[in-house]
Write a structure and sequence with these properties.
The complex is a heterodimer.
Chain A: E1 4-12, E2 17-24, H1 34-50, E3 56-62, E4 65-71, E5 76-83, H2 88-105, H3 123-130, H4 138-142, E6 175-178, H5 191-197, H6 203-214
Parallel strand pairs in A: 3-6
Antiparallel strand pairs in A: 1-2, 1-5, 3-4, 4-5
Helix pairs in contact in A: 1-6
Chain B: H1 9-23, E1 29-33, E2 44-47, E3 50-54, H2 55-74, H3 84-94, H4 99-110, H5 116-129, H6 134-148, H7 154-170, H8 175-190, H9 195-210, H10 215-230, H11 243-249, H12 252-258, H13 266-286, H14 291-307, H15 311-328, H16 333-347
Parallel strand pairs in B: 1-3
Antiparallel strand pairs in B: 2-3
Helix pairs in contact in B: 1-2, 1-3, 2-3, 3-4, 4-6, 5-6, 7-8, 8-10, 9-10, 10-13, 10-14, 11-13, 13-14, 14-16, 15-16
The chains are: A alpha+beta, B mainly alpha.
Organism (chain A): Aphis craccivora (Cowpea aphid)
Pfam family, one (chain A): Longin
Main location (chain A): membrane
């Protein structure tokens, strides 16, 4: 499926990350699963920003899902969760665009103090709907056509680096590709422990995670 | 037979489920809701036309209904009581892969205890839980073929095609769902109804571009395309400007050779196939390295050469595939190599990559 499930903007603080805005499109999940899926995606989003260095990009594959993350040099971060059919290059371009629009709308000095309820940035929902079709992003990707030639390899750990997708930025950001969430966690960290400790996940979602893990599928039992 | 009754709540739960199924004609989903322990309330959840059963009780409920149903079946006496139906409903919602239970429902339809229309509704709900389950599709086709026996209404068949498409979206490469759709297309063609095939041809085009690694959807389109090129009557409802593809694919000399007054649909059919070839190219450019797209391309090349076995087609195809292979050789290296090799060995079309 070529699909975007969630897009979020966060601020990466020195110790943890705060969610500033998020949008979801979860109609393809069953009615009773949506709540847990949303909570879990929120949890993954926050965790992955905390484990990504400043001025870096990462793409993490977890089963049939992809989680793309971009943390800018000014610590504004964007996370996009998509199906693995969604073109990775478009996903990263979209993150760049989203963060540009966000910073144009919300002044940077306020980021460290804001939380989700205080931010108005409804464009995020519109963008999530519009770019379900990656062709919509064609116009903005054309500028970066030359990046098509860069090969992206998915591997257990950092396999490949490529230069900045963001033409505006002189600093070369680096895109790391991983194929499980576990690979981006710090040494000794276990996803199971993080899930168990998390305060953002309800009891039901934790049980959902355990069951999904047992049956080796994220959304079907 | 002695049935253990260590889960007394089961009877109440299955009655509750049956009541919801009976009363809500718009019920659309069934699912298990993860809940490791009993919450001291009914495990049946019913919101917004969606029915959920908490996971802790599933095992007990299923054991309860399974034992009873098997013992009813073993007595071989047709014991149709109002008790059997709720047992079957819960059993099939939880585990729709048991053919015996569907057969018991078939008998109940034949004896007039269940209505075919209600059964179509019920099996659609079961399908929302297990979208790939073959027994459900077979049951639906059985109802259409043996009970309703009516394939003339576009409305009914369109509804069935929508159900197939929804199931296909619920499980990747869901061959059973696509096969179900194709069965109905065949039935409509037998009735000399040619509008549905063009409808499906258009509709699944969008669907394919949203599910680029779905092998079964591509294969369904291949089956449709075979029908379209085989019978010109199938083309009559198709709205597409195929002439552009023909102009793009052939040079003027080749087009001249193609003009054959005896086969007036020739141009149109080849245009449909060429449209698909260009559509496939667009998808490959956008979505790199998907085997399903390259397999589909192989089929299209084979079809063009096989049906229109003339030199100018091979020539034009060779030029086209050379252009595509060169363009994509960097981004889809492995698949381009395979494709070129296949063109050489299977179709005797030599292509030298630059």
């Amino acid at each position: 499926m070529v699909k975007l499930f969630a897009m979020s903007v966060l601020y990466k603080g020195p110790n943890d990350s705060t969610l500033l805005k998020s949008a979801f499109e979860l109609q393809s999940f069953g009615y009773f699963q949506r709540k847990s899926v949303q909570e879990f995606m929120g949890f993954v989003t926050k965790t992955i920003v905390e484990r990504t260095a400043t001025a870096a990009r990462q793409s993490v594959k977890e089963k049939e899902y992809m989680c793309h993350v971009y943390v800018r040099a000014d610590n504004l971060a964007g996370v996009l969760i998509s199906d693995d059919e969604y073109p990775h290059r478009v996903a990263h371009t979209l993150l760049t665009k989203t963060l540009d629009e966000f910073s144009a709308k919300v002044p940077s000095h306020s980021w460290p103090k804001l939380n989700e309820t205080q931010v108005t940035f409804n464009e995020l929902n519109a963008m999530l709907a519009k770019y379900q079709n990656p062709k919509e992003a064609d116009a903005m990707t054309r500028i970066q056509q030359d990046l098509d030639d860069t090969k992206i390899i998915l591997g257990m750990f950092v396999m490949d680096t490529l230069y900045a997708l963001n033409a505006n930025e002189c600093l070369p950001s680096i895109v790391h590709h991983h194929n499980t969430i576990e690979a981006v966690l710090e040494r000794g960290e276990k996803l199971d422990d993080l899930v168990a400790k998390s305060e953002g996940l309800s009891m039901q979602s934790k049980a959902f995670y355990k069951t999904a893990k047992k049956t080796n599928a994220c959304c079907r039992m | 037979m002695d049935l253990d009754d260590n889960f007394p709540a089961a009877k109440r739960i299955i009655t509750e489920i049956q009541n919801i199924v009976n009363s809500d004609s718009k019920l659309k989903e069934f699912d298990l809701v993860i809940q490791p322990e009993s919450q001291n309330k009914s495990p049946v959840i019913y919101v917004d036309h969606c029915l959920g059963l908490e996971s802790w009780c599933v095992r007990h409920v299923y054991e309860y209904v399974y034992q009873r149903l098997i013992s009813i079946r073993k007595r071989l006496k047709r014991q149709v009581s109002n008790d059997t139906i709720p047992l079957l409903t819960s059993a099939l919602l939880i585990n729709p892969e048991v053919l015996t239970f569907w057969n018991m429902r078939r008998e109940l339809i034949l004896d007039g205890y269940l209505k075919p229309d209600d059964e179509l509704q019920f099996s659609a709900v079961v399908l929302s839980f297990k979208p790939k389950c073959a027994e459900i599709f077979t049951y639906r086709r059985w109802i259409f073929f043996n009970i309703l026996k009516d394939f003339s209404s576009n409305h009914i068949i369109l509804n069935e095609l929508t159900i197939g498409l929804t199931a296909a979206a619920g499980y990747p490469s869901n061959y059973n769902a696509w096969n179900h759709c194709y069965w109905f297309i065949q039935k409509s063609l037998e009735q000399e109804n040619y509008s549905l095939i063009s409808h499906q041809w258009e509709q699944t085009k969008t669907w394919c571009s949203e599910h680029v690694s779905d092998h079964s959807c591509m294969q369904y389109r291949q089956r449709l395309l075979k029908c379209l090129v085989a019978d010109k009557k199938c083309l009559q409802h198709l709205e597409c400007c195929t002439s552009k593809s023909i102009l793009r694919f052939f040079n003027s000399d080749e087009r001249h050779k193609l003009m054959r007054p005896s086969e007036d649909y020739f141009d149109e059919a080849i245009g449909v196939a060429l449209d698909e070839l260009y559509f496939n190219e667009d998808l490959i450019v956008m979505y790199q390295n998907h085997e399903s797209l390259w397999n589909h391309r192989r089929f299209l090349c084979y079809l063009l050469v096989d049906i229109y076995n003339i030199d100018c087609i091979k020539e034009a195809l060779m030029n086209n595939e050379r252009r595509v292979s060169t363009k994509l050789s960097k981004s889809n290296e492995l698949y381009v190599k395979k494709h070129v090799l296949w063109l050489q060995t299977a179709l005797c079309i030599p292509i030298k990559l630059l």
